Amino acid sequence: MKQFLNKNTPYLFISPALFLLLLFSLLPIMLAFVISFTDIDLVGLADYSKINFIGFDNYVNIMQDPVFLKSIFNTLFYVIIGVPLVIICSLGIALMINFSEAKIFQFFRLIFYTPSITNVVAVAVVWSYLYNPWFGLLNYLLSFLDLGPVPWLQDPTIAKLSLIVLAVWRAIGVNMIIFLAALQGIPKEYYEAASLDGANSRQQLFKITVPMLRFAIFFVTVTTMIGWLQFFEEPFVMTKGGPLDSTNSVALFIYQNGFQLSKFGYAAAGSFILFIAIIIITLIQFRIQRKNNGGDI
Question: What is the pTM of this model?
Fold first, then answer.
């Protein structure tokens, strides 16, 4: 008995966490997968006999849905522009805070981190006033340059860019902290040795700092890309997917069909398409990183 306990003690300690993971994560995922092959709606929730198994019809129909296809395009637009901006801005700010001796940069740490912990609804309300085409602050400032009002949330392309600006502003803080932690873990002896060898600041940045941050950059890239593939809060609060579905994301499309139109099976099919896409993109990133690091990951 004692030998059995010694052997299985680790499993006893992690069993509560595994139980919660199974109950609140794995089991709902499996149920959603089953639902994606049915036509369940509000009627089906009230009477299970009204639920019909329809096979792959939801998947076939959703891949022919022009709104869903447009949501995919919008999501890719968000990812392609938003992810590099978040990484570059957060890394740049982290470098300035870490290597600058000015006291003001220590205060910047709080300034840039605050948006990431601020309620998204409150942020969206403030930015809605900033983006207002008639009395918003941004157009007011443009008027001093004799420039006409910009339809920040009314033009299809400008609306997407406006949401990206807001999302990047909110995402910088967390990633900045991650980069700061990685920067402070780089031994100072490397920089001292490089200085003795005559390396300037730019050479130290690209020969020491960036290579030593490769794992932090990889982590931030993966988590940021997953977050942008699930882009939801900003278009939901500020534009509701408009105008003309130009800001609709895949996550918002799933919400609209599942919780507004009560097409639960249809929404579940869309969620699994997004789920598979996230897995594939993440695995590709891991494969590229493992190849670049000689199999270290």
Answer: 0.89
Please check whether residue 250 is in contact with residue 161, taking contact to mean a CB–CB distance below 8 angstroms: no
Helix ranges, the chain (H): 2-21, 27-35, 42-46, 57-63, 66-99, 104-113, 120-131, 137-143, 156-184, 188-196, 201-204, 210-212, 214-229, 233-238, 250-255, 264-292
Dist CA 235 CA 249 (whole Å): 8
Residue 200 is classified by DSSP as -
Alpha-carbon distance of 178 to 96, in angstroms, equals 14
Among 247, 98, 253, 270, CA closest to 183? 98
Do residues 79 and 225 lie in contact, with contact meaning Cβ atoms separated by under 8 Å?
A: yes
70-127 confidence digits (pLDDT tens): 999 999 999 999 999 999 999 999 988 888 777 777 777 788 888 888 888 888 888 9
From CA 45, how far away is CA 43, in angstroms rounded?
Answer: 5
Which of 157, 177, 262 minimizes the C-alpha distance to 223? 177
**Rounded Cα–Cα distance for residues 97 and 99 (Å):** 6
Looking at the DSSP bridge assignments, the partners of residue 38 are: 53
Closest CA to 162 of 277, 78, 221: 78
Query: Does residue 198 sit in helix, strand or coil?
Result: coil
